[in-house]
Design brief:
This protein is α/β, with parallel strands linked by helices. It has a single domain, classed as Metal-dependent hydrolases (TIM Barrel). About 35% of the residues lie in helices and about 25% in strands. It is built from nine helices and ten strands. Strands 1, 2, 3, 4, 5, 6, 7, 8, 9 and 10 form a ten-stranded mixed beta sheet that branches. Strand 3 and strand 4 form a beta hairpin. The radius of gyration is 18 Å and the shape is globular.
Length: about 260
């Protein structure tokens, strides 16, 4: 009897840097996840509407836009090369497609994993999702609050919950857990789920995450997320502790 062909990959699919509203640079983010023993990290800084209601015009841009996107991707690629050599960590570029609106029933965010080209949201979240999918990204509905919970939520994004049957064909996975917030309706609806850290601060490394079983390659990870293959939702701290204990036991055995 043989085991699985590939080891499970511990993944962070939703993380921010100083290119938008994260506290860490791309390099610092890579070091945090690499030192923790993660296998896959996707950098997903925000792209917003040109008339975003939460970012008044004239202020300094704290997001990725058409003018800086190529520099953003290049910065990720540079750190991705280092990450693979230093930590055997696969780093993927991406964006958080951020459609903010004063009405929570119109507001929606989606994570585009592996997206290497720019996708704007000025024409609506549906157009942005279609554009990102044409470019091969894996798409995740982010923090999909139920309408009743959105009013008091830190991110009032209820569009995916309110209109999930219409939007479901446009995304591949749904955040069942974002950090430690649980969106129970996703499980009740039987939608394909993931867990992400939505990392903005260093302490967000050790929250709920996703494990998948596939090759540690960009194409394999994206194909897995875009398929109906299972994902495993895990507490990252427990996984990292278990891996460290296993490695220590192997060293002890080898030395005996």
């Amino acid at each position: 009897m043989t085991g699985p062909p590939h080891a499970p990959l511990l993944c962070e699919l939703h993380a921010h840097t100083t290119w938008s509203d994260g506290a860490q640079t791309i390099g610092q983010l890579v070091d945090a996840y690499g030192q923790a023993g993660f296998d896959v990290l996707c950098v997903t800084d925000h792209v917003i509407r040109s008339d975003d209601p939460e970012h008044p015009p004239g202020g300094p841009p704290q997001h990725v836009h058409t003018r800086n996107h190529s520099s953003y991707v290049m910065a990720i690629e540079i750190e991705a090369a280092r990450a693979r050599v230093q930590y055997d960590l696969l780093v993927l570029p991406g964006l958080e497609l951020t459609y903010n609106d004063p009405d929570p029933l119109r507001a929606a965010h989606a994570v585009a994993v592996g997206l290497e080209t720019f996708a704007g949201v000025d024409d609506g979240i549906e157009r942005a999702l279609r554009d990102a999918r044409r470019q091969g990204a894996a798409l995740i509905a982010a923090h999909p609050y139920a309408p009743a919970a959105a009013a008091g939520a830190p991110r009032a994004t209820a569009r995916f919950a309110a209109d999930w049957r219409t939007l479901a064909p446009l995304v591949d996975r749904w955040e069942l857990i974002n950090r430690r917030d649980v969106f129970g309706w996703v499980a009740e609806a039987g939608l394909p789920a993931v867990a992400t850290g939505d990392a903005h601060e260093p302490e967000h490394v050790f929250t709920w995450k996703t494990m998948i079983v596939c090759r540690k390659e960009r194409a394999s990870v994206l194909a897995h997320l875009r398929s109906t293959a299972p994902t495993y939702l895990v507490d990252a701290a427990s996984v990292v502790a278990a891996r460290e204990a296993t490695a220590s036991a192997r060293l002890t055995y080898a030395a005996s």
